[in-house]
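pinned: reference chain
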Amino acid sequence: MTSALPDFEPGYAEINEAKIYYEIAGSGTPLILVHGFSLDRRMWDDQFAFLATDYRVIRYDVRGFGNSTDAPVQPYSYLDDLMVLMDHIGIEAAHLVGLSMGGAIVVDFAVEHPERVLSLVPVDAPLGGVEWLTNFGTRMGITARLANQVGMDSALDLWLGDELLEPAMNNPACAPALEEIIRDYTGWHWTSGAKSMSRDTQTSELLNTIVSPTLVIVGEHDLIDFHAMGDVMAEGIAGARKVVIPNVGHMSNMEDPTAFNELLHKFLSTIE
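pinned: its structure tokens
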């Protein structure tokens, strides 16, 4: 299922010598969607259309993905990019929704800039400071080496066949769109050697500093790592709760957009 896109305003924000592409639709309280690794803003098509009826929705391509350029300045910061993007658009605070890598970005952002966050929704998100229970990190490393030594086609073949994406790739309603988005990934983060900034203290140790209302979402069939990390977030953030969407994996918003949208809308309606 992919909803027709709403009318939107495209734009670029120049941030630390990179151009960050964004799209804005709807009006009302700002809500920002942050995509996962190897993906881009298009993974949010169903949410972009659905949420724009009630919110001013901003989706953007994280540095090095989609229409955004990469990082001539090293090291770069995804958190700085998001903050400057909000300043560029004129947003003081927003609801933040992020999946996977995007979930990690919004959680870290809520730690660093709590005054800019109205609510927080990490979806199938990793969490710094929590040990991985599977060999997912090793598999990611193998994929990156393949990109460097053999080429991106082989690396993306391996990535698309990974256990992480298996439920989505076996779902005919979302697999074609997901594969199209991933096939467009340039692999810059794998091949450039670019480094993003990190803090000395792990995020898991700072969850108690997050003050915004928080909903943690995990797909039932996602890796056990993300369930465990979701539990840590739900327990460590005051007032947070974890909800599992049944019959979906890591790409819960694409695999069952109806269930995802209803859950998100219900949560947001308690904050307004």
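why pinned: The chain has one domain: 9-131+197-269. Strands lie at 9-15, 18-25, 30-34, 56-60, 94-99, 117-123, 215-219, 241-245.
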